[in-house]
Amino acid sequence: MKISNETKVGSLTVIAVVLLVLGFNFLKGKSLTSDNMRFFGVFTNIQGLTTSNPVMVNGKQIGTVTSADGGVDMRRIVVGLTLNQKVNIPRNSVAIISPSLLGTTSIEIKLGNVLDYYKDGDTLLTQVSGGMFDAALEKVDPVLAQVQGAVKSLDSLLLTVNGVFDPNMKGNIQGTMANLNRTTAALAVSSASLQSLLNTQTGALAKTLDNVSSFTGGLANNNEKIDRTLTNLEATTAKFSKLEVEQTLTALNNTVTELKNTIANVNSDKGTLGLLLNDTKLYNNLNATSNKLNLLLDDFRTNPKRYVNVSVFGRKDRSTPLSVPLPDTVNAPYLKQ
Questions:
Q1: Model pTM score
Q2: Can you tell me whether residue 47 is helix, strand or coil?
Q3: Which of 148, 159, 195, 204 to pair with 129, CA 20 to 30 A apart?
Q4: 188 has pLDDT over 90
Q5: Torsions phi, psi for 16 (to 5 deg)
Q6: Residue 86: CB partners within 8 Å, gap ≥ 6?
Q7: Distances in Å between the alpha carbon of 25 and those of 60, 105, 123, 224, 330?
Q8: How many Å is the Cα radius of gyration of the chain?
Q9: What is residue 107's three-state secondary structure?
Q10: pLDDT tens for each residue of 4-46
Q11: Domain 34-129: top CATH class
């Protein structure tokens, strides 16, 4: 079977394109096999890191940088790391950007010591590196590098102190010193006043003690009068104690008892007053009498001729007397039982 030249050219072209794509992806740091792990790290400054830069662990390259995307804000740049071999990275490991004097920036992963490991697709902890100059300085002269670090720390300390002692703080300190001066002056005046107060000749304390001495002297001179007053008071209290208070209270108690007995008799149905207050017979009799009187008055008002005859030739009214009150008095209070 003879293969035409066109087929050969087409096949070579396809192979070349495939090789070109694979090579391009290889140069970008993408693995050609599927057995790889992918991690991410977030940095604020990637210091010239680009795709295909190596990822190092203890001086050995285990992968490459495959992406670096900061979005529109560019304050948080997410860097993608692809490892071409399986590596156990502890959870306390740190990814650090390590610049080089030769221009090739890499990412160094400082392994931790815990037994819990990152999984594929996790985000690693990151740390800001010192830069190429600091790395070179550490290699050339470690002592000078330490001095530079100390100078930076001192500079940060001075900036912090300067930030603390702003103009407002300085004004507050000056005000505090002025208040302290006024306080010391006031203490001096107070000490002078205290000294004058404690003066044994003209001080207020000496005068107060003299007044107390005079008062106690007056009490000593009137000791006899005080004794007589106390004696009279004792005699008065003795007279009060001799009063017949107990007999008075006994009589009052007996009176209260008799009053309680009287009220109990009134509340009972014994005696005239008790029957009047508690027995309903009198009330019923009075109510019946009132009803009969009302009926008589209504009959007299309706048929007066039955009771009084003022005509000479007239005859006595013999109509039937009323047996119930008239309608105008049917709702009178005396009919309510």
A1: 0.36
A2: coil
A3: 159
A4: no
A5: -65, -40
A6: 35, 37
A7: 21, 19, 23, 126, 124
A8: 63
A9: strand
A10: 777 878 888 888 888 887 776 666 555 555 568 999 999 999 9
A11: mainly beta
Confidence of residue 334 (pLDDT cuts 50, 70, 90): very low
Which residue in 76, 98, 90 sits closest to 122, CA to CA?
Answer: 90
β-bridge partners, 80: 40, 67
DSSP 252: H
What is the H or E stretch that residue 22 is in? helix 5-27
Question: 10 Å Cβ neighbour count for 82?
Answer: 20
Determine the Cα–Cα distance for residues 334 and 297; give it in Å rounded to an integer: 13
* Residues 120-141 pLDDT 10s: 999 999 987 755 555 555 555 5
CA-to-CA dists, residue 315 to 299, 310, 320, angstroms: 18, 10, 15
CA distances to 50, 122, 220 from 226, rounded to whole Å, are 112, 101, 10
Three-class DSSP category at 62? strand
Q: What does the alpha-carbon distance between residue 35 and residue 24 come to, in Å, rounded to a whole number? A: 19
Read off the pLDDT of each residue in 187-208 and give the average, rounded to a whole number.
77
- Upper half-sphere CA count for residue 33 (Cβ side, 13 Å): 8
Number of Cβ atoms within 10 Å of the Cβ of 245: 10
- Report residue 244 CA to chain centroid gap: 67
> Within 13 Å of residue 262, how many CA atoms lie on the same side as its CB?
6
Helix (H, G, I), strand (E, B) or coil at 201: coil
Instruction: Name the DSSP letter for residue 56.
Output: E
Name the DSSP class of 2.
P
The domain limits of the chain are 1-30, 34-129, 281-335
Q: Is 102:64 a contact under the CB 8 Å cutoff?
A: no
Nearest C-alpha neighbor of 114 from the set 137, 148, 91: 91
- Please state whether beta strands 94-98 and 54-57 pair in parallel, antiparallel, or not at all (unpaired): unpaired
- Per the prediction, the chain carries an average pLDDT of 78
Q: What is the pLDDT of residue 146?
A: 67
- Higher-confidence position of 316 and 95: 95
- If pLDDT is split at 50, 70 and 90, which confidence band does 112 have? very high
Least confident segment among 211-220, 284-293, 321-330: 321-330
